[in-house]
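Re: weekly structure request thread

Next one in the queue (710 aa):
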Amino acid sequence: MKIIFKSLSLILFLTIFSSSTFAQKKELTLENAVMQQYRGFYPQSLIMFQWIPNTDCYSYLEGYQKLMKASVKNTTAKEILTIQELNSKLGSELSWFSGMTWKDENSFWVNDGATYYEYNLVEEKGTAINHLPEGAENALFNEKSLNIAYTVGNNVRIKNAFGVELSVTNNSDKNIVSGQAIARSEFGITGGLFWSHKGTSLAFYQKDETNVADYPLLDNSKTPGELISIKYPMAGQKSEKARVGVYNSVTDKTVYFETQNGEENYLTNLSWSFDDKYIVVAEVNRDQNHMWLNVYEASTGNFVKTLFEEKNDKWIEPEHPAKFISSSNDFLWISEKNGFNNIYFYDFNGKLLKQLTDHSFVVKDIIDFKKGIVYYSATGESPLDTKIYSVDLKGKSNQITGESGTHSVSISSDGLYIHDHFSSHSVPSKNCIATTKGKVLSTVLVGENKLADYQIGTAEIGTIKAKDGTTLYTRMIKPSNFDASKRYPVLVYVYGGPHAQLITNSWYDGASLWMHWMAEQGYLVYTVDNRGSAERGFAFESQIHRQLGTVEMEDQLSGVEYLKSLPYVDANRLAVHGWSFGGFMTTSLMLRHPGVYQVGVAGGPVTDWKYYEIMYGERYMDRPDENEKGYEQASLMTHAGNLTGDLLLIHGTVDDVVVMQHNLSLVQKFVELGVQMDFFPYPMHKHNVGGKDRVHLMTKVLNYVLENNK
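Done, posted below.
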């Protein structure tokens, strides 16, 4: 196994601290590990950094209470406003500068979720510009028109700049849902409201769920308990029907357009053309192997043309909307058609003008387009990194950030400067100002390791080989008092599914701090990002098609083989834990490869893919009647009789992502077979257990491992 990074904590120990000092370090409690990872232990950074328009100045928050300002030439920040002063001027009760966005070099907007304000720093005064009614959700503010779109129940409303409330939809039928995310938030969909650039027209998703099965969840907080009915489309069953509405606030009219090639197709990645005359939508067929990029006229809803199509025998999954960059409606498109996400430049006739990038690594997202330059994030040569690049419209590219690690940038309005927030395995946090050519001008803030005073072990990132020769990345966390002459039990933490990458070149290496707590209990905590996981390209990910769990488990077992080769690993004391897809993997490993792991803890597991939602499940497994053997083999009910170790199943009782039918069906099968296992519900929690109850969850999970893996 090749070790790529050495542990920062180990280096600091050897170079700075003596053994006597080390002995005096604080103990990391499990409660603090769970609750403070992104609070007290998160490295200091520039909070809510923003470039101030039309200047070389920028702002950020100090302690969420003070608005600070500095510039490229003078990075010594000055306080320009406190939240108390802002509240005094506005007559508001803001607890912090929530939702703050600069309007121009002197004015900004801020909101408390209900009331939207504008404040002028020069005049030292502001006003409330709009207010949402009670019950409003999914609010979307347009900075040009000052209109706010939002939803109330299943309908769309607009509050315009004059305070007039406009009803965009009035559907009394609860099966017709407007303005919310559709397709179960797959295909990169995060919302259902889309303002035109000028803010005078609003596009919105609408889904007809009439044919989708009702699914019962129990609200046990009521006396007697009450039914929570949700719509849940399971694989192979009836799906929702999508369409797009377009409301014009000038004419007070709404038009609609439908799918072109199948009523249960998906309408994804909606975007407005540069001139606001057209809407472009990526339509994907239900089988998810064919995509049409379609154009519709915004004023009429009429279909105009298909710009181009993409097909794939396994799946098509567009996740990035077209980005229009010129008055002629030329646009940028991210496609995985050559095996990796790359950027393509098209005209409005669908003609490919230029493939702008041709990387054999993954383009993650387009960050911005300024003065003929496209700025984007990508992994670079190491899939563990996130780096920043630029490319012009002729395909001349430049790597802006050179340091290996995870970069997140924002670009000044004039396109001359970037703010780069960086972290890596050895750097907690660093905030730099640089040119868009990549020259670092100043380091504004370096965050310290807030765990330096705690007794914490080491994390090592390495690689192993899969059976087909593919390189797989691994992470091993060792206790602070690790002794290679001893033998340690191992907890394997697994996810293993699409869209997730557990190991990254960032602070904490993508790990949760509870893993370091577990290591201090005398464990090694080990993770493998198997084939099927994210940021490695289509060939790496798509090997799971029609056989979820099979290739993924093969790679996890390669990780076990490596563990068994280490003299300090107790191969008779292996445990495995994961949630969601990781719960499916945990239980699959326990049942399909009995005896390898002595203990398993599976949270919110998919136990049979026929119970899972259409949008995700059919992409990877096709429909149940098209892949009977694949569904049967992946079903945990098929293998339930094989259990030999200790298995704890956990589920939130109102889980609306992986419904509890999964776990109940598996428990029922265990009972039928006379197989003993353990089950623990978390009442009134959804797909994961959050808040203070998460401490209870992790205590339950880790104590189960400690008590049974003996």
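Residues 1-22 have pLDDT under 50 and may be disordered. The first strand starts at residue 2 and ends at 5.
Next request, please.
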